[in-house]
Amino acid sequence: MRRDARRNVERLATAAGQIFRERGLDAPLEEIAKAAGVSAGTLYNRFGGRDALIDAVMPDVVEAKVREAMVRAEAEADPWDGFTLYLTLLCEMQATDLAVSDAVSRRYADAKRLNEICEAQMDGVRGLIAKAHAAGRLRADFTAEDLPYLLWTTSTVVRATASRAPDAWRRALAFTLDGLRPAAAHPLPAPPLTAEQVHAVMLDLGAKRSGQGR
Amino acid sequence: MRRDARRNVERLATAAGQIFRERGLDAPLEEIAKAAGVSAGTLYNRFGGRDALIDAVMPDVVEAKVREAMVRAEAEADPWDGFTLYLTLLCEMQATDLAVSDAVSRRYADAKRLNEICEAQMDGVRGLIAKAHAAGRLRADFTAEDLPYLLWTTSTVVRATASRAPDAWRRALAFTLDGLRPAAAHPLPAPPLTAEQVHAVMLDLGAKRSGQGR
DNA sequence: CCCTAAGTTGAGGTGGCTATCAACTTAGAA
DNA sequence: TTCTAAGTTGATAGCCACCTCAACTTAGGG
């Protein structure tokens, strides 16, 4: 690849990182091209489309953030504290970075690397959940497939309140977490989603234009 | 008004009712005009714009549904049962009628009648909450201003899962409700939104094009 | 320094939606 | 029946976003 082409790839990646973060993964690609100082055509030449751009930009960011959260969560002595800390950190990320919020609550069909990282993350969460279950600190009927409810909720609350009450999600999350302790448990009216359903639903979300996005 | 004009108003209102219900209050107005068998121009002639159309079509529907839910809720002997029944019915409406889902979780600046009805409904909910508080059956720190969190959550879950797991919201709601019992309560990290913040946020949501779209 | 493959550009086609308006049609009173 | 105010229409302009491509520019090897 020629030097100028490589330079443009880098500029585009940087711009995409910034703009995705500010406006979510549905941000107009033209905006990104403009921020990178190139034309939209170049963006398509270099990346081919939105999903490929996402897959070029997001995985590293997401993996780093998610890994750090996991490290901190696993450092907690109490499994419940670990579980809730992880969720809180995840929501914090969602609140400060719309790109992460989208990456974590949707799936983009052609962003393979990103999907793998998200799957890996889910496995990590399964571990946290298992530990909390084993310690009797998390209601037994909560499964990893229920996690998306939390992510969708936070993502919605965050987007709705970001400009007017940026900490509102903490309150909403606290209500939810209080429902996840064993003592709070009452029989649930429906079984959890299957992993396939979760995947399919998240793909649907990623395929829709405009999300809740600007 | 001429007879044909009145007839068109009726056709448009009927079509709007149907299409809003299926696709939400962001449905393309052209679609509605087409379903009514008139041109888009006529829709604008008769109603002037989306908000006016919403305000012409939705208030009666919403009021009827909300009133019935309130009647049934107030018929419950236990205030907690009343409160949760009301929320469940509200969510059921959201699940079966995207228009109601939008009407209840957003505000449209120029839909005055609808806004009044939503405000009135909020007052009813305040009553339910007060009774449940008085009976010690609802955690004391839950306020009417926290209700939107539930509505936003359900609205998101319903839209995401409608086509693949139409009952998923029941499980998500159950987790949430389990967090609202007094026994589940742990200190909350942030104060509730003010009524003004809730209003402003809901207006923002209504003003965005495409919501979770289609 | 020249030449060409690699790369960029920006204009333009596509599509979806909103909103308006001059030209046409029609209800219904006189 | 006639006439006109009321009403409808379809074309159109404006947005915004996606995506493509022929024409142009340039890096960098020979």
Automatic annotation (TrEMBL), chains A, B:
Name of the molecule in the record: TetR family transcriptional regulator
Keyword Coiled coil in annotation: no
Keyword DNA-binding found: yes
Record lineage: Bacteria, Bacillati, Actinomycetota, Actinomycetes, Micromonosporales
Gene3D superfamilies for the chain: Tetracycline Repressor, domain 2
GO molecular-function terms, A-Z: DNA-binding transcription factor activity; transcription cis-regulatory region binding
Source organism per UniProt: Paractinoplanes tereljensis
Keyword entries, A-Z: DNA-binding, Transcription, Transcription regulation
Pfam families, sorted: TetR_C_43, TetR_N
Stretches assigned to the HTH tetR-type domain: 6-65
InterPro entries (UniProt xref): Homeodomain-like_sf, HTH-type_TetR-like_transc_reg, HTH_TetR, Tet_transcr_reg_TetR-rel_C_sf, TetR_SbtR-like_C
SUPFAM superfamilies xref list: Homeodomain-like, Tetracyclin repressor-like, C-terminal domain
DNA-binding region as annotated in the record: 28-47
Taxonomy, superkingdom: Bacteria
PROSITE patterns: HTH_TETR_2
